[in-house]
């Protein structure tokens, strides 16, 4: 249980770093470059996924010893694409249908996607063998 708690703390720190990158890029692209929030949100999310992968496999999840790193990254990206779809759907619902300001909507969407990310990465990336 202690290991899970430490892992959750590390995941939270990695997630916070990725979120700050995601959020800053989204705001810069939307406010400074005039790009639509859905496009800027997609771009920023994609950049943060790469950072998140690197930090997750080095600091959070115990990798499978025999894991094919290319396959692992593809799985990570596929799971993240589903997370991106969930992120975009939540952004659209909140901003366009519920008239919530996009910066606040991003925080809510990120919290939901964070739970999804932890569960799926724990299932598909982490080594579950008893060594």
TrEMBL record:
The keyword Lipid metabolism does not apply. Keywords: Membrane, Transmembrane, Transmembrane helix. Residues 10-125 form the GtrA/DPMS transmembrane domain. Its main location: membrane. It is found in: Membrane. Signal peptide: none annotated. The keyword Transmembrane helix applies. InterPro entries: GtrA_CellWall_Glycosyl (IPR051401), GtrA_DPMS_TM (IPR007267). This is GtrA family protein. It comes from Diplocloster modestus.
């Amino acid at each position: 249980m202690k290991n899970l708690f430490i892992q959750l703390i590390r995941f939270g720190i990695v997630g916070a770093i990725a979120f700050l990158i995601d959020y800053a890029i989204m705001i810069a692209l939307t406010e400074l470059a005039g790009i639509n929030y859905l496009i800027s949100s997609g771009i920023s999310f994609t950049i943060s996924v790469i950072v998140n992968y690197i930090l997750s496999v080095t600091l959070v999840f115990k990798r499978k010893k025999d894991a094919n790193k290319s396959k692992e990254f593809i799985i990570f990206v596929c799971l993240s694409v589903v997370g991106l779809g969930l992120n975009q759907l939540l952004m659209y619902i909140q901003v366009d249908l519920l008239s919530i300001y996009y910066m606040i909507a991003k925080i809510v969407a990120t919290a939901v996607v964070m739970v999804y990310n932890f569960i799926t990465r724990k299932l598909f990336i982490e080594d579950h063998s008893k060594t």
